[in-house]
Amino acid sequence: MSTIIQEFRADHQRIRGTLVRLRQAVTTGDIPAVRRLLGAAEGLLGAHVKFEELHLYPALTGFLGEDGVQQLIREHDSMFQGVENLAALAAKDAWSDAERRSALESLALIAYHPENCDELCQYVAHLPGSERAALFDHMQALRLQRITFSGYAVERRRA
């Protein structure tokens, strides 16, 4: 049986793997691969980020404080901006050197949070078992909704 910590880490592993492939595609200017990889990441990122914002961060406020939670939300803001910028660049047929640099900068905005977010597991481990189980259930329910990252971006802007 999976636990919330195992699933949370597995999500980050998949996200980091996609980011590595995205960096390779951006570096080589393989725009079709960038499009494909962004599309593949849509489902995983949408459910994961929504889970963090709606369920995980509120559960960890006692450990992180309001300022810590707000910092994590700002990291998500950067991710949304990075994905939006990279998607706009991926809509082009070719990139100039400046656009390739911009794509790499956008990728850096996306990558910062997933590379550091795994550390939250140390706090999750200290939550009561019933709360960890409830978080796992919330994560699974959001996955079943199949919300995309861009779909959550729209939902988030409306809220």
Structure description:
There is one protein chain. It is built from six helices and no strands. It has helices spanning 4-28, 31-90, 97-116, 121-124, 129-145, 149-158. Helix 1 (4-28) runs antiparallel to helix 3. The longest helix has 60 residues, at 31-90. The chain starts with a helix and ends with a helix.
Provide a compact summary of the structure.
The protein has helices at residues 4-28, 31-90, 97-116, 121-124, 129-145, 149-158.
Outline the fold blueprint.
Layout: H1 4-28, H2 31-90, H3 97-116, H4 121-124, H5 129-145, H6 149-158
Helix pairs in contact: 1-2, 1-3, 2-3, 2-5, 2-6
Give the amount of beta strand, in percent.
under 5%
What pattern of helices and strands is seen along the backbone?
A: HHHHHH
The whole-angstrom Rg is: 16 Å
Largest sheet: none
Taking pLDDT < 50 over at least 5 consecutive residues as the criterion, the unreliable ranges are none
Label the overall shape: elongated
DSSP helix count?
6
Give the tally of β-strands.
0
